[in-house]
């Protein structure tokens, strides 16, 4: 058993740095002194406002209740993601990708059965929104938090202000003894064996440690720039490399739907994220297909932002490091790679990277750790790439290129081939169970939601299975869940 390092230094004070700090402090705090160095000059990326359900476990692990962190971070609940206009076919204009739970077991089985029948050419209803309780919870503007404890928990995620979340976690970690240094790393000293020995700080001088965590964002200062770990680009599959973000006011009169809305635009897609006091909007696009100025104009039109509202432009580097733990260094967050924010998976990866590292460090399982992380990242990538491959939009060269020029992995090709044939799609999914991050409901939702069916199979208007499933979902939403704003009001501010 390898004991924890005695002194560990984290470089970077974005969400990744502070999430890593809190987790490592909780796991090793008594045996290891932790310092976080953060530049007062280089801003954090400042976006990243949606999570997956795994974030529930992050806060639970730290013993932080929703009533403590959510009001401080302007947070709302999230039941899933609405994908709007990702196809050119009005019959498949939008679908909801839900966070699912045991409440969905029965209607979801009906959905899978209908999808498989329709794949074989039979007309039946396959609109995902009719078969998942969280889609009805969202349509009714409720929060996905059950009013009373159920036999099985309900998974949900969050929306939040990224800057406020980092500040909250900073306060939490510093309150528990973490040393915080505001300074710039201007040099890195390596030992004879190539390990990192110390950092050179602009003001405070030399800072030595046994272990270093690189949370320096896209510049990957320690892992890539110092240790030379290669970067594997996903550029041949994912063409988006830039984003522009704008905040707009919330509409207090409209229901507060617990969803991220992802709308396809001319050369990428736009997110809309409802927070308590504002709405986050952004356009993720390919800079080879549209200029930053045109993208900003298109986003302003889309979200109704006046020219006077400031916009923030960002560049994205899409891909991953070859190794995430190398020598005495771990890369976490944008420094280890980024897929793109379509399914809001980056913080989930941050959490997994640090929690699994704590488990694997003591047994020195570096090789299997790096392999597990790469497999997870590639599993997420395949699901993201599927959105682009399945698009049927005909309005720009960008959407044609996404469909025809991308080079999907073997795994993704095998899944699409199984779905398009008449064989057993579940068997194909099962065969990839070790590599897939997204589970059966997610794959059925995307394939059915984007209308990947034989042309002749048109749903019948009076399909009975649709009615009974939708009635069940609507009833469950009404009976088990409170209005979203009412649920938030119960959290002390
Ligand atoms: C457009 C966009 C949308 C996104 N949406 C989502 C989303 O919905 N959900 C999600 O989970 N994720 C999302 N992400 C990803 C998410 O924003 C990041 O994973 C998260 O913010 C973590 O960033 P980070 O801490 O790794 O890097 P950063 O926020 O860039 O922080 C880097 C830190 O390193 C410090 N630093 C850098 N160099 C030095 C130096 N030399 N010396 C000292 N300090 C230094 C900086 O000062 C800063 O504190 C999105 C990302 C983008 C680009």
Task: Please provide a written account of the structure.
The protein is of the alpha+beta class. It contains 16 helices and 23 strands. Among the domains are: 7-49 and 161-233 and 318-359, 3-Layer(bba) Sandwich (FAD/NAD(P)-binding domain); 242-315. It has helices at 15-28, 54-62, 66-72, 105-119, 133-139, 162-175, 221-226, 292-303, 346-361, 366-389, 397-404, 410-420, 425-431, 440-449, 464-480, 484-489, and strands at 7-11, 33-38, 76-78, 80-84, 94-98, 142-146, 157-159, 179-182, 185-190, 196-201, 205-208, 211-214, 231-233, 242-248, 259-265, 268-274, 279-285, 312-315, 319-321, 325-326, 329-331, 337-338, 481-483. Flavin-adenine dinucleotide binds at residues 11-17, 37-39, 42, 44-45, 47-51, 162, 184-185, 215-217, 219, 221, 243, 282, 284, 314, 316, 333-335, 341, 344, 346-347.
Q: Over all CA atoms, what is the radius of gyration?
A: 23 Å
Question: Would you tell me the overall average pLDDT?
Answer: 96
- How would the global form be characterised? globular
- Could you tell me which ligands this complex binds, including any ions or cofactors? flavin-adenine dinucleotide
Structural key phrases:
single chain, 493 residues, alpha+beta, FAD/NAD(P)-binding domain, seven-stranded mixed beta sheet, six-stranded mixed beta sheet, 37% helix, 21% strand, binds flavin-adenine dinucleotide
Quick structural gist:
With 493 residues, the chain is an alpha+beta fold. It is built from 16 helices and 23 strands. Residues 11-17, 37-39, 42, 44-45, 47-51, 162, 184-185, 215-217, 219, 221, 243, 282, 284, 314, 316, 333-335, 341, 344, 346-347 line the site of flavin-adenine dinucleotide.
